[in-house]
Amino acid sequence: MAKNFKDLSEREILALAVSLEEEDGRIYGEFAEGLRESYPATAGMLEEMQTEESDHRSSLIELYRSRFGDHIPLIRRQDVKGFVSRPPVWLIRPIGPRAVRRSIESMESETRRFYQLAIERTTDASTRKLLGDLAEAEAKHTAAAEIIEKQHLTSEAKAKEKQAANRVFVLQFVQPGLAGLMDGSVSTLAPLFAAAFATQKTHDAFVVGLAASVGAGISMAFAEGLSDDGSLTGRGRPLIRGAVTGVMTTIGGIGHTLPYLISNFRLATIVAICVVGVELAAISWIRQHYMETPLVRAALQVVLGGLLVFIAGIHRKVLGETRAVGETVHREERRLSMTTLIEYTDASPEVREVYEDIMNTRKTDWINNFWKALANHPATLRRTWESIKQIMAPGALDPLTKELIYLAVSATNQCQYCVASHSASARKKGMTDEMLGELMAVVGMANETNALAAGYRVEIDDQFKA
User: Fold this and answer.
1) How confident is the model over 41-46, as a mean pLDDT?
2) Is residue 365 part of a domain?
3) What's the count of helices (H) and strands (E) in the chain, helices before strands?
4) 29 plus 110 within the same structural domain
């Protein structure tokens, strides 16, 4: 249980003073080690302060031994009520010089106050003198630190430390933040504008943009946080880097998503495009300011990347519409189909016999869908095949002429399947594009004049009567 300061004996007060000086010296040493790589001048200043604390501890130990012997009881600051808990900032890596100097100021103030109270609790003249000297030393510590700072932190050293601080800031905050902002601002363009132009609905575009922004933020946060632990690269704590990257990614995506809260689609899109321009300008400025990239080159690179992703979004929208139309047509064709197509493997022996005759006659290894549909009624399949095999066989009319006639009638009857099937068959037998053109012209003219003659009920000429 912690003791009250007023209950401490002179022996315990000296033992506590030894413990405090040892602890302060070790903290200075930790601070020096933490700043050595990036701030060597400040580290040198801290090492001198550590040496001074060690001298204080030696003086206290010498006094204690002269009065109370060699055994120094273990009594620490946490064993006495009234001491403020010190957060272990010296364990933070990396740590900046400002945080170190604030911590030192707090330590000096607390230690000086301890010595002032300790003087009031002691009666021995030599002890009071030493404690007074130490209190005065702590009071002058700030001035001493200023003197040491002038010795170590020359203008050149300060410039180097400022440069190192800027480098640390860029590595730990600017780079991950910029990566997130670029990813959020650029990568979400494609899904946002694809959804916007495909649906023409601001609410749908907003939902897609919000989901893309949050999803990208989470993904980038984990990617950055897990990329390295910062021990070798000096990029700082993974948790902070990941959080910075994730937040900036989300902000970059939401920036041009928020305009789609506007109900007017055209206005929302115009505002979103303007926001994208502002985002790309901000990215270019950050790259120029912190990465020393020429502003024109940075702008061209960022705008080019954004433009490519935007085009990808529009292209995705066009492909999506084309695919949707194709799928709709396919679904409609399947919906309009009135029967199941019987494949060879599923056919009965009777149907297989007809299938094999068709393939042998036509010298093919496949059965077209017309016959697969008729196979649902084997008798109709066989009768139709026997008839068409006989009629389309060579005779007074050559095979190409028969196919052209078949094609003409199919076009007149508007049978798309028959037109496709007999167009392919006629081409195999020699039909050219010119022949097809003339054939369709004849079919069209015949249908037109047929309708006119029938409509006017034109009497047949005697010359045309047999």
Assistant:
1) 80
2) no
3) 18, 0
4) yes
